[in-house]
Amino acid sequence: MSSIVCKDLRKTFQQGDETITGLDHVSIEIAEGGFVCLSGPSGSGKTTLLNAIGGLDTPDSGEVTIGSTRIDQLSKGELADMRLNKLGFVFQAYNLIPVLTAQENVEFVMQVRGVSAEERAKLSRSILQEVGLAGMEGRRPSQLSGGQQQRVAVARAIVSQPALILADEPTANLDTHSSAQLMDLFVKLNEHHKITFVIATHDVRVMRYAKRLIKMQDGKIVSDELQEQQPMAV
Amino acid sequence: MNITLRMAWRNLWRHKRRTWITVSAMVFSNLLLVFMISLQFGMYRMMIDNTLKAFTGHTQIQRQGYNDDPKIRTSIDDIVILADDVRDSLGSKEVAARGISFAMTSSEQRSYGLQIVGVEPEYEPNVSSLPGLVKQGRYLADMDAEEIVIGSVLARNLRVKVGDELTLLGSGREGSIAAGIVIVSGIFESGSADIDRSMAQVPLGYFQSLYNMDGAGHTIVVNTDEISRVTELQSRVAGIIPANKQLEVLNWEQLQPGLKQAIQADMASAWFMYAVLIVLVAFSVLNTQLMSVLERTREFGVMMALGVKPTRLGSLVLTETFLMSSLGLSIGIILGIALTYYLTIAGFAYPGMEEMAERFNLPARMYPSLSVLSILLGPGIIFICSLVAAIYPATRLFFLQPVIAMRAV
Ligand SMILES: Nc1ncnc2c1ncn2[C@@H]1O[C@H](COP(=O)(O)OP(=O)(O)OP(=O)(O)O)[C@@H](O)[C@H]1O
Ligand SMILES: [Mg+2]
After folding, report:
1. Per the domain annotation, does A81 fall within a domain?
2. CA dihedral defined by B225, B227, B230, B236, rounded to 10 degrees?
3. Which residue from B124, B133, B176, B358 has the fewest beta carbons nearer than 10 Å?
4. Are residues A56 and B3, on separate chains, in Cβ contact within 8 Å?
5. pLDDT along chain A (234 residues), means of 10
């Protein structure tokens, strides 16, 4: 139900007189429960592809289907609702609301979804515990380390039990230890909650976690291989 | 507490200084408006009170047409009897009959044209402050005595003192000659040079015989304790007076249209100034909120990427403005009340006030009048305009593209 199908996606950007190709006729299928890494050099189109899948940006041509929904045909409002209710996003950094505490950051999305205050408090606490942040609920982002912030962001992404999590360079600002912790968490969520993961990364240590590794270059998919997950020793 | 509200409140204090500067602009404007509007209201009240108390009164019974074209023949028959009836029916002593005409008034040395008012010496003090303002000699006492009280300016012009004789020469009701000799019994200082120069009072009985009025007069002044009840009084009096005598009851606005116009003109010019102030505050709010929206572009982009809709982000910005304006409103009102309340006790004078004071018979110190309206009117408008000013920054959020917004620094 949360399988992803991209057909012949094309996306270009206009930079002055120059036309930059972000995605060049990309087609992929990602099955439900997948744990996929997108790798490739800088500028190869990883972020552009994630944005297209997440409905943050509309491709010039081609189709994106999540489950049974053609999301390239949804309105802005419908896309927002889809992101709110079905998707989880984890970005590179600085993606928490600075004036809210860890717990409030997690609760905020739930409040927008109309979850009752009681339910919110209960869920957010247990999720923060699950990502290993018990006792830090009341801290603001500025009082948390990069790894801890990223885990709050993950908590925020998974609290609504999405079927799909899109992560763009989630470990870019993390040290080896924090990266490994975060990836272990992703693997756990993938196994226990059957959440599909699509992770864009440069980081070879992250790629080792993938069940499927897709390499991109110049907006094209250049290789697509299944592999054994090889978690790092923490 | 709601997370959005908490978020709005904390966002306000991300730039403490900037927020306080904007709040200060609001506080200052609100304080100024509370004070200015209260002062204005106080001044208008005094203008009305003093002008009406000196002479016009709150309402008058007149023959129809007299107010527009005061002719000596447009009179009320048996006016003293009618005044007695009105007094009895209302159960009020604040009723007094008058006759009004003109006369050339001469002393041994000089002559001046004057308005001569015949009054009931017993009741006139109940409707007018003038009898109490006699500074030399005494006020009129006997209904038929051949006496006159004149203003201090006229006394100086005519070069007469209490006890001197004046000759009155005018025309009576049927075109006869009205001529008489009266003795100056008192000299009043009303505070209005105009009244002190051009008006004199004689007893109504004497007035009627001098002008051949045959018991008639021109107006009956009827006052009330509370000026806000004038309309009520007007209709009560209209119910008392006989219907078949072509009489009408006029209120002070009809009797003194100039007073109302002066108030309106003053109000208009004051509001022009207030409008400038209000627009400046609104722009300061606009600027603050626009800056605050622009510098949070990335944050808003992230929220939109999470699925938060622009309407919700817009209402966050409006909530922030609401909180900021509430702060400005409450502090401004508290300080405004404190300052104004102090001045309602201590009084206040400002340059340029003398002209107005002179014209409308006002004291040299003003006392503002605090009321719910004078407190809330200005700050309320500023509050609303601030919210309106935040609409533009809030609408910017509808044009944000999450992907582009998240790239912003
Ligand atoms: N908004 C934009 N305007 C212009 N060009 C863009 C825009 N977004 C992406 N591009 C271009 O599209 C191409 C693909 O960009 P994309 O961000 O997808 O790369 P990436 O693989 O995520 O790179 P990185 O690893 O550095 O994050 C690049 O050449 C980039 O310069
Ligand atoms: Mg990228």
Report:
1. yes
2. -10
3. B176
4. no
5. 86 90 92 93 93 91 91 90 89 84 92 90 91 91 90 88 90 85 89 92 91 94 87 60
**Residue with CA closest to ligand 1 atom 31:** A43
Interface probe, candidates B306, B311, B397, chain A, greatest A C-beta count within 10 A: B306
pLDDT at position B311: 92
pLDDT at position B353 is: 65
| Total tally of structural domains belonging to chain A | 1
Q: How high is the pLDDT of residue A24?
A: 92
Select the residue of A82, A85, A108 nearest B3 (Cβ to Cβ).
A108
Who's near A8: CB < 8 A, 6+ residues apart? A25, A26, A27, A61, A62, A63
Identity of the residue numbered B200: A
pLDDT at B362: 63
Q: B-side interface with A, Cβ within 8 Å?
A: 2-4, 6-7, 10-11, 14, 298-299, 302-309, 312, 401-403, 406
A215 in a structural domain: yes
Residues of chain B with confidence (pLDDT) below 50: none
Q: Which atom of ligand 1 has the smallest separation from the CA of A202?
A: 25
CB atoms A57 and B3 under 8 Å: no
ipTM: 0.89
pLDDT of residue B34: 94
Of residues A200, A183, A156, A191, the one with CA closest to residue A54: A200
CA of A13 to the centre of ligand 2 (A): 14
A111 contact residues in B (CB cutoff 8 A):
2-4
* pLDDT tens-digit map of B185-233: 999 988 778 889 999 999 999 999 999 999 999 999 999 888 778 889 9
In this structure, the residue with its CA closest to atom 26 of ligand 1 is A42
For A202, the domain range is 4-96+163-226
The type of residue at A54 is G
Of A66, A90, A92, A62, nearest to A78 by C-alpha is A66
**CATH code assigned at A84:** 3.40.50.300
A46 within domain boundaries = yes
Residue A11 lies in a domain: yes
Beta strands across the sheet bearing A87-90:
A87-90, A164-168, A196-200, A35-39, A212-217, A220-226
B277 SS3 class: helix
